[in-house]
TrEMBL record, chain B:
Pfam families: ABC_membrane (PF00664), ABC_tran (PF00005)
Entry protein name: ABC transporter ATP-binding protein
PANTHER family: ATP-BINDING CASSETTE SUB-FAMILY B MEMBER 10, MITOCHONDRIAL (PTHR43394:SF1), ATP-DEPENDENT PERMEASE MDL1, MITOCHONDRIAL (PTHR43394)
Protein's membrane topology: Multi-pass membrane protein
């Protein structure tokens, strides 16, 4: 996961290797090769231009990185040349005047090369990290702007992977691949030029191995790609199976289906094993193949060099230089393909990031001038509101309601009738298809979403707590609340008692999943949060459904105080919760079928009465 | 990593052959510079064309041998590593299947998944690397030094000396960098946690209009992370220039010293050529080693995480009894049962205290009580999802710890609070406990569970595919499917753990009526929040803070039990208490 981590071993290996004038380095063992899936991007040039937009902000660092890359390459090319000269000019003729001075020059070249390498990487690391920092921040900010709908459609895992893996990919590429690409090309051209100056014939002979290398690389990577994608597929299947099994492990155990699960797992694991051996065998062969290519060019240079030297066409020093250059020449070729793949996959990753960044944020969809007017009364009116999550399915079919300031409105009805949808529309998590919703006479479409939501306190069925202390979680309702206010809110929400019982009280750290609290306790916290926010409209969407009825009774008492002077919408299964509501709306199949007070509805003897009587029916039998 | 050695054993052959071939490959590779030196000294300098020819052919043979051994090594290494990985994966999976609920609580499910997927891939890659690179680099290193010493003792010593210095420098660098990397990891975790939470809590954030605040928070952790990663990366950046420079310095020293030797007739030019190559070999293998070492560190962490899972003993021990005596499940008895999650018997840790329950076939035991009072824990003791801390649970007079787990669990149908559904069709899900069930059986179970109607309304009916965690169904629908799933296996003991909470009252009423006929022959344990759900039970237990505070029928409890009265009032309102009483008295 932590690919952007500089400790990433592939990163450092590759990074180091590109700056060495070494021989015999086999790029990657086996696994590294297999680690680069080839992903094609849709619009590479457009994406690159956007990445460039980010890079531009680090112009200075970029300049230094490129300059140092060029200088490093030049010095790397000078080394072998000087060694050849030392052998030809001093060792062979056995004359040693100035030999030491030459050695010192060589040492100086190496020192400069090391310095520039260091400085290049020094700058590159801040360049890449700062760039992806900006990208990450943009992405995060975009998440804050996107409508809820977006998050309902995408899984968290998928979005997580965009924010972590995809961005790491970009970071790695910026950090190494780009630099490597530049230096590879420079080394390629530079070595070629140096070789040509030394000996045309030797150069031509060295080049002989290139088509061979290209051919073999191409063949292997073609097969490799096939096996590799097959392996990825199987790995995905294994992971998917594991994921589901673990998530549903309790069910598996309760039904005693462990053996069957193991059996199923073994089947897909065996498939992965088989394809894994094949894919690894093939991709791992890349190393020895490349090694052989290197050996062949070494052999060719040594033998032909010797023949030429035998005929006095070249000197021994040239052979030595060539042995070094041929390596500097073939290494970039070997790496280029790999780097290109990495580059491609980073571009694809960046594309996925930009895809999110390009989505329409919910704030900008308000074309009308936004009213910042504070909503103080809380008079809520729905006029013939229609809505559906999908165009072809209507969830609400012409809902009209009128909540006077300070009223408590209860929404009841069968599961899936559209109660929560009413709330989603009021908070503008979703926008209505037709009709009108007004608050204090103001169409909410014309209101700034932020301003609107600031006036609405929401307690949801799913009690969500953040990691952090209990105090922080409650304070989320109003960031500038004092400790005393936080505790007061907790007391009102009946949460104070259980919080004080915890060993660390309000400073108890909650885990991200809040697993150290019961669901009921978590819900009490979110209620306290809403209490603290002090909104003029309060929405309780099954807020107490996971709290036992006795606790609920206590909360309700607190809620009664809280609801005073506020318009409140309450959704509840338990009818006892809502008997005192000013108006009860029965929603069935997307329409309001009955409305009135508890007594009126009982007298009406309709669906509500039926539901209500049902609670007592059991005892009557 | 060594802890996983036993999983390598079956592939010992490959594990030995792989490195052996690698050493051979290195040997052949190392012969090349020596042969080149031979060509220069005896072919070019001594002007003998035959030597050039013969040595050339020899070099070609060596190249082929190097290829063969290199590929061979890879084949063995691949077999070993992939099989090793697959075996570990299977072992992990099997292990996790034996986990008790207790174990599952210890490892979070996310962490378990990572261990079984990513971590396995890590150690698998490590083995591959160990067999190839980790053998290659040191062999190349040692081989080069040995060859250098053979060719020219004095020059070889220069190389050896440099190497020692270099290794010390490398070790120091790596050692001082590791706390930095740990810090990077921590900061990265902070960034990820922030993102994760924002995705999960997005509604809350939007509802409270806290985007600005969240942005600030994220900016802080993001900048922190960036800063430390830059620091770490800059530290790493020292690595390669230092190593390269030391080795290149050695190269210059050898050239100068060797040049002098050649001039004084002590050395040959070809040897110098070979030397230059060996130095370069050493350099490259060092780079490889330092890269691989970091991989090893990372894989070691993974290995440790895998070991943690494999070494966990299931908190539930399988009974010694191998023969599965059929149990009729006529009678269930909990005798003086106490339970604590950590196994301690201290009163403050006890979640359940001195619970006594008896139930016979045909009876329904209903359990009601506040959230966190221990209801769920209590019923989870029956299928041994947890084991009692003291006391015993007996079925037909036999302690359930004496029964084979599978036999026990087959007798119990349990509907969990969280209605988890698997990917697959609705039919697959209902038939989960009995995959060979007929369509009639599936439909019958669905009908009883009040799920048939909504299933039939779906365009694809029972063949409707459910996504991850069945997201396209409502909570109530999921609950009904999970009820149908349990009913299909027709267990003698049925446990419903608050499994109708998302149903509306009318649907629940219908479900209860339907269940009544079906459960006449069962022992049913029913946890519920609503009085209406439990009032018909023969035995209602009121649990408060782990203790049974009331026991009897609805009527009895209403008359005697304070807590029960409280609950009743909370659901029916004050004015209804007397009415409810009267109604129930009538019955």
């Amino acid at each position: 996961m932590a690919n952007s981590n500089p400790s990433d071993p592939n990163a450092s290996t590759n990074k180091a290797s590109s700056n060495f004038d070494q021989m015999g380095f086999r790029p990657g063992g086996g696994p590294q090769h297999a680690g680069v899936p080839k992903v094609r991007s849709k619009n590479a040039s457009g994406t690159m231009r956007r990445i460039w937009g980010y890079l531009k902000q680090q112009r200075q660092a970029l300049f230094w990185v490129i300059l140092c890359t060029v200088l490093t390459s030049v010095f790397a090319l000078l080394g072998p040349y000087l060694i050849g000269r030392m052998i030809d000019d001093y060792v062979m003729p056995k004359q040693f005047d100035g030999f030491v001075r030459m050695g010192m020059i060589l040492l100086g070249v190496y020192l400069l090369s090391a310095l520039f390498t260091w400085f290049q990487q020094y700058m590159a690391s801040s360049l890449s990290q700062n760039t992806v920092r900006d990208m990450r921040e943009d992405l995060f900010n975009q998440y804050q702007r996107l409508p809820v709908q977006f998050f309902d459609q995408k899984t968290h895992g998928e979005l997580m992977s965009r924010t972590t893996n995809d961005i790491s990919n970009v970071s790695n590429t910026l950090n190494q691949t780009v630099v490597q690409l530049i230096s590879s090309v420079l080394m390629l051209v530079g070595s070629l030029v140096m070789m040509l100056t030394l000996s045309l014939w030797m150069t031509l002979i060295t080049m002989l191995t290139i088509p061979l290398v290209a051919f073999i690389t191409k063949r292997i990577s073609k097969y490799m790609r096939h096996y590799f994608s097959e392996q990825q597929k199987q790995l995905g299947e294994v992971n998917g199976f594991v994921q589901e099994n673990i998530s549903g492990l309790k069910v598996v155990k309760v039904f005693g289906r462990e053996e069957k699960a193991v059996e199923q797992f073994r089947e897909i694991n065996e498939r992965l094993r088989a394809i894994g051996v094949k894919a690894q065998s093939l991709s791992g062969s890349m190393g020895p193949m490349m090694n052989t290519m290197r050996n062949i060019s070494f052999l060719v240079i040594a033998v032909f060099g010797a023949v030429f030297a035998y005929h006095d066409m070249i000197t021994v020093g040239v052979i030595v230089s060539f042995l070094n250059y041929s390596n500097q020449f073939s290494q970039p070729i070997n790496q280029l393909a790999n780097q290109y793949n990495m580059f491609q996959s980073a571009i694809a990753g960046a594309e996925r990031v930009f895809e999110v960044l390009d989505l329409e944020p919910e704030i900008s969809d308000d074309t009308a001038p936004k009213s910042q007017q504070a909503l103080i009364h809380g008079e809520v009116v729905f006029e013939d509101v229609c809505f559906g999550y999908k165009p072809e399915v209507d969830v609400l079919k012409g809902v009209s309601l009128h909540a006077h300031p300070g009223q408590m409105i209860a929404l009841v009805g069968p599961t899936g009738a559209g109660k929560t949808t009413v709330i989603n529309l009021l908070t503008r998590f979703y926008d209505i298809r037709s009709g009108r919703i007004t608050i204090d006479g103001e169409d909410i479409q014309q209101l700034d979403k932020q301003a609107l939501r600031q006036q609405i306190g929401l307690v949801l069925q799913d009690a969500y707590v953040f990691s952090g202390t209990i105090r922080d979680n409650i304070r989320y309702g109003r960031l500038d609340a004092t400790d005393r206010e936080v505790e007061e809110a907790a007391r009102l929400a009946n949460a104070d008692v259980f919080i004080r019982k915890l060993p660390r009280g309000y400073d108890t750290e909650l885990s991200a999943e809040g697993s150290n609290l019961s669901q009921g306790q978590r819900q009490l916290l979110t209620i306290a949060r809403a209490v603290l926010a002090n909104p003029c409209i309060l929405i309780l969407d099954e807020a107490t459904s996971s709290v036992d009825t006795r606790t609920e009774l206590h909360i309700q008492e607190a809620m009664k105080t809280l609801m005073k002077g506020r318009t409140s919408f309450v959704i509840a299964h338990r009818l006892s919760t809502i008997q005192e509501a000013d108006a009860i709306l029965v929603i069935q199949d997307g329409q309001i079928t009955e409305q009135g007070t508890h007594d009126q509805l009982i007298a009406r003897n309709g669906f509500y009465n039926h539901m209500y009587q049902n609670q007592f029916a059991a005892s009557a039998q | 990593m060594w802890g996983l050695a036993s999983y390598i054993k079956p592939y010992l052959k490959f594990v030995i052959l792989g490195p052996l071939f690698m050493i051979l490959e290195v040997f052949f590779d190392l012969m090349q510079p020596k042969l080149a030196a031979h060509i220069v000294d005896f072919g070019v300098v001594a002007r003998d064309f035959n030597v050039i020819e013969r040595t050339g052919i020899l070099m070609a043979v060596v190249t082929v041998l190097s290829l063969v051994t290199g590929v061979g090594c890879n084949l063995f290494a691949s077999r070993a590593s992939q099989n090793f990985g697959a075996d570990i994966r299977e072992a992990l999976f099997k292990k996790v299947q034996t986990f008790s609920f207790d174990n599952m609580d210890t490892f979070k499910s996310g962490s378990l998944i990572t261990r079984m997927t990513n971590d396995v891939v890590q150690v698998q890659n490590l083995l591959q690397m160990a067999l190839q690179g980790l053998v290659r680099a040191p062999s190349l290193l040692i081989g080069s030094v040995v060859m250098a010493l053979i060719i020219n003792l004095r020059l070889g010593l220069v190389l050896l000396g440099t190497l020692i210095v270099l290794i010390i420098v490398l070790v120091l660098l790596i050692r001082s960098s590791s706390p930095l990397f740990a810090a990077v990891q921590t900061k990265l975790d902070a960034v990820n946690t922030r993102i994760q939470e924002n995705l999960a809590g997005i509604r809350v954030i939007k509802a409270f209009v806290r985007s600005g605040y969240e942005k600030e928070q994220f900016q802080a952790v993001n900048r922190d992370y960036t800063e430390i990663s830059i620091r770490a990366a800059r530290f790493i950046a020292l690595n390669s220039p230092i190593v390269t420079f030391i080795m290149n310095g050695c190269l210059v020293a050898i050239l100068l010293y060797g040049g002098n030797q050649v001039s004084s007739g002590l050395g040959k030019v070809g040897d110098l050529v070979a030397f230059v190559n060996y130095v370069v070999q050493v350099l490259s293998s060092l780079v490889m080693v330092s890269g691989l070492l970091m991989n090893v560190t990372q894989a070691n962490v993974s290995a440790k995480r895998i070991r943690e899972v494999l070494d966990t003993h299931s908190a539930i021990e399988e009974s010694k009894q191998e023969k599965a005596a059929p149990i009729a499940a006529e009678h269930v008895k909990l005798e003086q049962v106490s339970f604590s999650y950590n196994g301690s018997t201290a009163v403050k840790d006890l979640v359940l205290k001195d619970i006594n329950i008896e139930a016979r076939r045909g009876e329904t035991v209903a359990i009601i009580g506040a959230t966190g009072s221990g209801k769920s824990t209590l019923v989870q003791l029956l299928p041994r999802l947890y084991d009692v801390t003291s006391g015993s649970v007996q079925i037909d007079g036999t302690d359930i710890r004496e029964l084979p787990l599978l036999t026990l669990r087959r007798q119990i149908g349990m509907i969990l609070q969280d209605a988890f559904l698997f990917t697959g069709t609705i039919r697959d899900n209902i038939a989960f406990g009995k995959p060979n069930a007929t369509q009639e059986e599936v439909e019958a179970a669905a009908m009883t569970a009040q799920a048939h109607d909504f299933i039939s309304k779906l365009p694809e009916g029972y063949d409707t595919k459910l996504g991850q965690r069945g997201v396209n169904l409502s909570g109530g629908q999921k609950q009904r499917l999970s009820i149908a799933r349990a009913l299909l296996v027709k267990p003698p003991i049925l446990i419903m753990d608050d499994s109708t909470s998302a149903l509306d009252l009318i649907t629940e009423r219908r479900l209860r009526d339907a269940l009544k006929q079906l459960t006449e022959d069962n022992i049913t344990f029913l946890i519920a929040q609503r009085i209406s759900s439990v009032m018909e039970a023969q035995q209602i237990l009121v649990i408060d803070e782990g203790e049974i505070v009331g026991r009897g029928t609805h009527t009895e409890l209403l008359a005697t039990c304070d807590v029960y009265q409280d609950i009743y009032r909370s659901q029916y309102g004050k004015q209804e208490v007397s009415c409810g009483k009267q109604q129930s008295f009538r019955s």
